[in-house]
Design goal:
Its main location: cytoplasm. By secondary structure, this protein is α/β, with parallel strands linked by helices. It is 28% helix and 11% strand. It has one domain (2-8, 22-258): Uracil-DNA glycosylase-like domain (Uracil-DNA Glycosylase, subunit E), CATH 3.40.470. It has a four-stranded parallel beta sheet. The termini are far apart.
Length: 272
């Protein structure tokens, strides 16, 4: 579905782009190293497995949505060809599904990727490690982590360390138009991620769901008997209405241990 390919600087950007030039991370021109990320139509999930873009277990679980995923690839390619682009870059669109399905023990859902070029990395709430300042929702997540576990806020927003421990950081919608929040809602990603959540529940393995905000709470009927930690969203608009003080990290670990699973180390890279 998605791949990165080298390309020469396009005439659209030119040698001296204006301040309003469109140079997203997915389409770098004269204002950045030249490479292009494309959505490639018609690629089967097995090929994505071979290329390391998706775990084999996830490919099997998402097989009923294979046609939808190919259609989304076609649509992203059209966005790219028109010069609009999309985020995150192609190699990261399915990044939440790169870690083994069998290893997932915590689900944290987001809405859609950050619409700021250079920020999203395919994991909900996470950003590239060099992004400063951190998004305010992530700043609040770190503040609650400190209150809950005594871990000071991290200097970066890359949550890959959580993903590597089986925390599925899953946005309901996996792509967005640069600068346009929620622009890809209704495209079909919701069906893909709903299927993913149902697959998690069907495994009959230890699992805890952390649901932040109203949109996430609407997923609760999909979760069956899965233990749920629900609160307000960490956004500055709602964090003081129930997110702060909700202790999601320690509560998730307690629920995992009750199911016979190992707790999550909620530190990120570089923290001791």
């Amino acid at each position: 579905m998605l791949r990165g390919t080298s390309t020469s600087t396009s005439s659209r950007c030119g040698p001296s782009p204006s301040p309003r030039s469109t140079c997203w991370p997915a389409v770098r021109c004269a204002c950045a190293p030249t490479w292009r990320t494309e959505a490639v139509p018609g690629r089967p999930l097995t090929q994505l497995v071979d290329e390391g873009l998706i775990d084999a277990g996830w490919a099997q679980a998402l097989a009923p949505a294979a046609d939808t995923i190919r259609m989304l690839g076609d649509r992203l390619r059209a966005e790219q060809a028109s010069g609009v682009g999309y985020l995150p870059d192609g190699a990261h669109v399915l990044r939440a599904f790169q870690r083994p399905l069998a290893d997932v023990r915590v689900l944290i859902t987001g809405q859609d990727p950050y619409p700021t070029p250079g920020h999203p990395i395919g994991l909900s709430f996470a950003v590239n490690s060099d992004v400063r300042p951190l998004p305010r929702s992530l700043t609040n997540i770190y503040a609650e982590r400190e209150s809950d576990l005594g871990i000071p806020p991290a200097p970066h927003g890359d949550l890959t360390a959580w993903s590597e421990q089986g925390v599925l950081l899953l946005n309901r919608v996996l792509t967005v138009r640069p600068g346009a929040p929620a622009s890809h809602r209704g495209w079909g990603w919701e069906q893909v991620t709903e299927l993913a959540i149902r697959a998690l529940v069907a495994r009959d393995r230890p699992l805890v769901a952390i649901l932040w905000g109203r949109d996430a709470a609407n997923l609760q009927p999909l979760l069956g008997e899965t233990p749920v930690i629900a609160s307000a969203h960490p956004s500055p608009l709602s964090a003081r209405r129930g997110f702060f003080g909700s202790r999601p990290f320690s509560r998730a670990n307690a629920l995992l241990e009750q199911q016979g699973a190992e707790p999550v180390d909620w530190r990120v890279d570089g923290e001791v």
